[in-house]
Amino acid sequence: MLAVRELTRPGLEQASFELQAGECVVVGGPSGAGKTLLLRALADLDPSTGQVLLDGVERGALSGPEWRRRVCYVPAESGWWTDRVADHFGGQAAAAPPLLERLLLPAAALAWEVPRLSTGERQRLALARALLRSPRVFLLDEPTSGLDEAARLAAEEVVRERLAAGACALWVTHDAEQARRLARRRFWVEAGRVAERSA
Amino acid sequence: MNTVQLDYADLALAALLVLVNAGLSLAFALGLERRMLVATARMVVQLLLVGVVLKALFAALSPLWTGAAALAMVLFAGREVMARQERRLKGVWAYGLGTSCMLLAAVLVTVFALSTQVRPDPWYDPRYSLPLLGMILGNTMTGVSLGLHALSSGLTTRRAAVEAQLALGATRWQATRPVARAALQSALMPIVNAMAATGLVSLPGMMTGQILAGADPTQAVRYQMLIMFLIAGGTTLGAVAAVLGGVLRLTDARHRLRLDRLRAPRPG
After folding, report:
1. What is the ipTM of this complex?
2. pLDDT tens digits for A124-142?
3. Cα torsion at B154, B156, B158, B159 (round to 10°)?
4. Model pTM?
5. N or C: which end of chain B has fewer CB within 10 A?
6. Does A91 reach chain B within 8 Å, measured CB to CB?
7. How many cross-chain Cβ pairs, A to B, lie less than 8 Å apart?
8. Number of domains in chain A
9. Alpha carbon distance, N-terminus to C-terminus of chain A
């Protein structure tokens, strides 16, 4: 579904791989090795060379925003552009409450103020606003690092449903248990080189 | 008009105040005396030169020399805008963006004023065009440099917020709107404040100058209003152009945020 051919950018050596629909690939490797650079290049948030195709369509055929609506990057540190949580859900705010509850957040979370959110709340809300936009590819950069066990499992479950519905995901995690739960395929990024490792 | 003429003895007397300042600086060990004297000397030399140059320009009444003087003013203002930036754009943009926006705004507004309201003969008469341009340029410069400064530092500090919007599929205009809006607010605030305070708190220099030169105060006030309108127009035009141009330069056609096109702030 997602085909990557000879993707290169500063800090990242040439990488080629494919993701199938429904597939989740866990990305590991030491901090600062280039995992975030890889995800940002795939989301076209930083300039890179090489081909990236989604369902056979080259990214250049779509505008940047169109591409990122399909290939959605969720950074480790989420960004918030107003003080009200609901503003970040745009037209999807009405559809948010059921999803929030599945992520163990109350529906009232939409009315919360961003500066008062805890790390874990931020992380789940950032994941939720991405999920609600229904991208085809999820690029998740340590999406559950600040969550307790129950919330972590809940987040995994929600993403897994999206995979079953035909999405695919690259999931960066340092948690070996989580990696085992999520995926058969592993990428290992070290010193800017992306290699596939067997689980 | 029966204005009081100043001779050099009068000036020397007033300059004693600066010496008093320098003495105070010495007495309190402020360490400012040297810089104060250099700045004073610079002001004296620069103003004397400007007086001579303006006199020559007024006498020549040449479109070419008037245009050259106007261009030199814009180029100096461009340098000033660049010097006030903490994070400059890389390459020619550091100088080019602010300067071209000021050139556009100040020249447009000055020509508008000369061709419709002031109407000297010839229309480029340096006695009118250069002071008008100078006043418009001085304020446009403040607006442009504040706007660019707020834009580049806003995009840098709010990078995560801007990129969060981009990552969710926003266009570069949607994603940078909060920062661009704040940049325009900070660019336009001085002129808005100046207009609100004019006449109550401050008597603008140009108006006071005309009154000192013997003009009828109601006529001087009318001139001042014209100048304020022109300054407001020039500042807005220049700041909008600079902020939009800055957004274009700090993003790209793929709607990516391109902070790599900014130079790191100078240390210190």
Report:
1. 0.95
2. 999 999 999 999 999 999 9
3. 140
4. 0.89
5. C
6. no
7. 70
8. 1
9. 21
